[in-house]
Amino acid sequence: MSLFRFQDVSIIINQQAILEETTMQFRENEIVGISGPSGTGKTTFLKIFNRLWEPSSGRVYYQDQLLENYDHTCLRREVILLFQEPLLFGPRVRDDLLYPFTLPRFQEKPPPDKTLIQALEIMELAPSFIDKNSSELSGGEKQRIALARSLLLQPRVLLLDEPTSALDQELTSSLLDRIKAIHNPSLMIFISHDPELLNQADVHYHLENRRLQKRRLLS
Amino acid sequence: MTVDISPLGMILAYVLFFLVFLLSHINRLEINRDLIISTVRMSLQLFLIGGILIYIFELESPLIITAVFLVMVFFGAWTIMERSGVTFLPIFFSLFFSLILGSGFVLIFYLLLVVGVSPWYDPQFFIPLAGMIIGNSMNGSTLAVERFFNGVRDNRLEIETRATLGANAREASLKIFKQAYRAALLPTLSSMTGMGIVFLPGMMTGQILGGTPPLIAIKYQITIMLGILASVALCSLLVLFFERRFLFSSLDLPRYHLFDKKPRG
Q1: Closest Cα in chain A, distance from residue B176 (Å)
Q2: C-alpha neighbours within 13 Å on the C-beta side of residue B169
Q3: What was the ipTM of the complex prediction?
Q4: Which of A52, B43, B145, B218: disulfide with B84, CB 3.0–4.6 Å?
Q5: pLDDT averaged over consecutive 10-residue blocks of chain A (219 residues)?
Q6: Which of A134-173 are b and which e, b meaning 16 or more Cβ less than 10 Å from the residue's Cβ?
Q7: CB atoms A85 and B165 under 8 Å
Q8: Domain encompassing residue A148
Q9: What is the CATH number of the domain that holds A142?
């Protein structure tokens, strides 16, 4: 079943076209990798999925419903985008992991410490991290905590913008498995330049010259 | 009892100015132009307002007083827009409206209930108190408007990160909102903290010079400070609510095109 469907979607930023009349779909249980030169608008493309950016024309369907029909704040918790530059709010890692549960409108029960520590451990972070000061962490640590924070919301769709840019080789190759061990989203779309990560995708698109072209997988 | 200043006294005061002028000139400190402009402006503006006040004091009309209040608020709102650099027409209207509501409420409350002035439009009370309340609210609101605008502009990633976790405009900008509100209140709060120890406030000094017993003067000073604090807080809060509405779209994201217009300091 197609989870996301793009119909004649164009994206224009500052009079510059990033994507032209593209029609495509993203199926359930798919892992999609996107590559492409920098500055071609890959991040903006991801923002379309949870309405952090609006397409200039065309329609986007999520579960066969127009994207506009969903409440955008609820949609964003279900279709989470993880930015390349991880941002933690602090003061401590626990506060960061629980931030999404402090928004009163959603009335979701915060997970217990046990679940938080489990998620940290899957991300190769010691349990003691839970009480660490968020501002004192390295880039790679922040990236993994930001990822854990998103996964604790159990999103249906996870969008990742260069998720391994601050991670070492071992973590990079095992990242997708680690994500699934915390929570397995129905659809994962990631932007990456890393051939190893791209090889783990079911589908690989390359964004260049305002088109998303399917690439054959290397393996 | 008030002691008038004689013409000779006025002239002698300007001797002080020439002293500063000469000292700066001899030492080539290159501030002559500013010294002259500021002194001339101050003198002309005060003489002018003095004339207007004499006229208004004689009229004692509620309509004229209301008009004076509106003119003060209008220029206040305009000054906030200019000084904060957030120059959008909707912002000006919301500033105008916030100042009318915030400082108007506090002013009427103070005049009628705290001091018990009758009639409420007695210019001897209304004009100086309105000036103090609007002036302070203007300074506070300028800081609030500027901080919030710059905060939203400079924290795009934070706002979007919070948004992608489900935060709406209010939640995503809460931290910036708090900082802006704090910045607006801080000058008033620090002046309250230093009052009486570090300096004697202007209104109290003026009243004492005018012959008011110190005990009455401090009662006025305490109550007007509470009024000023309330007005600064109310106006800043209203202004920030409007500004947030204006700067964020219905998708709970900053309206980015508003921030691209021109670089700001």
Answers
A1: 13
A2: 18
A3: 0.94
A4: B145
A5: 93 90 94 93 95 96 96 96 94 96 92 96 95 94 96 96 91 94 96 93 93 77
A6: beebeebbbbbbbbbbbbbbbbbbbbbbbbbbbbeeebbb
A7: no
A8: 2-215
A9: 3.40.50.300
